[in-house]
Each structure stands twice: as structure tokens, then as C-alpha cells.
Amino acid sequence: MDELVNYSEKLMQEASEKEWIERAKENPRWFEPLYDKYFSQIFRFLYKRHADEIVTAEICSEVFYKALIKIKHYKDKGFPFSSWLYKIALNESNQAFRKKKYHRVIPLDLLKSENLFDEFPLEDSQHDVEALKWAVQSLKPKELDIIELRFFNEMSFKEVARVLNITENNAKVKCYRILDKLRIKMNVK
């Protein structure tokens, strides 16, 4: 039996992600390497949104359960498999916010991330960070999703578009409009 397990593990190591996906469509056992590869990434994404380990674990398990159930319908459209998982995670997270009335959390360390902070001509002072936090928290949930995916998760516009089911150009336009909105709220040019 150990030889069979070792052989199975060896096959999983040698297979590419596309092979894992195709095999997982036929046999759920092949979903395991996908789960192993993406669990911590999706967990971190959800934890940044909820800042509660128990809630995050609950939502994360639901994400991977749905991914396992729906993998038969997954089609490679030139995007990373992770963007499909992020889409499921974003939907599950937003559903949790609606159903259970969880509050969205935006940690200060995320706001200080160079990606978002570089968009504004600010000093790294506590006042500027607080102003940015206030402005970001005033965004609508869908606007915040775009900022979060683009700047906190460092996704390309193409990946943001895939996760949100919009065009890449639309993702760019929306992102720049949101940044302009933040600049106005913060009184910066």
C-alpha cells in the first residue's frame, strides 16, 4: 500500500498544473495538489479581508469545497487557475459579509504597501496613513474589491478582470476612477 501512495505522490509531483486540473475533473484525488499549492495563498487573501482566523478557515473550506465540486466546469481561458479560485473566494467572502454582517477589515500595513501608497504624493506619516485608511474605507464594496485585488494582492489588470468577470480595459478604467476618487477624498492632486 505504501508503494501505491509513494507512486501517487510521485505522479503528482511530475504532473503539471493543467494535468492536475484535467485529472481532477475525473478523480477528486487529483485536486489535492491544487489544494496544497493554493491553500495558503487563498487563506491569506481571505484573512486580510476578515482578520478572524475561524471565519477565514470557514470561508476557505467553502471555497475549496466549491472548487472541487465545480472543477468539472472549469475551462482554461488563458488565465492562471488561481484567478478562478480568487473569484470563488471573493464571492464566498462577499456572501459572508452579506449573510453574517461581518465587517470588512483593512489593516494599516496593507495601506502602507508600496503599491497603493505610491499612487499618492504623501509622506509616510501617521496622518497620511489615517487619511488613506479613511478614504479607502469609504469606498463601496465593489470598488474596494478592485483596489484590494490590484494593490494588496498585486494582480495584473488581466487577472483582476478575470476575477471580477469584466474586461481588462474596464478593470483599468474602474481602477483609475477609484484612485481619482481617493485623491479627491484625501485632497491630493
Give an overview of the whole structure.
Residues 135-182 form the RNA polymerase sigma factor 70 region 4 type domain. Pfam families: Sigma70_r2, Sigma70_r4_2. This protein has helices at 2-14, 17-26, 32-50, 53-70, 81-100, 108-111, 114-117, 126-137, 141-152, 157-164, 168-186. The protein is globular, with a radius of gyration of 19 Å. The protein has 189 residues and is mainly α.
Helix content: over 70%
Number of helices: 11
Number of strands: 0
Q: Quote the CATH topology of the largest domain.
A: Rna Polymerase Sigma Factor, Chain: A
Order of helices and strands: HHHHHHHHHHH
Mean pLDDT: 83
Shape: globular
What is the rounded distance between the termini?
Answer: 66 Å
Record the SSE blueprint:
Elements: H1 2-14, H2 17-26, H3 32-50, H4 53-70, H5 81-100, H6 108-111, H7 114-117, H8 126-137, H9 141-152, H10 157-164, H11 168-186
Helix pairs in contact: 3-4, 3-5, 4-5, 5-10, 8-11, 9-11, 10-11
Keyword list:
Rna Polymerase Sigma Factor, Chain: A; 189 residues; Butyryl-CoA Dehydrogenase, subunit A, domain 3; 2 domains; mainly alpha
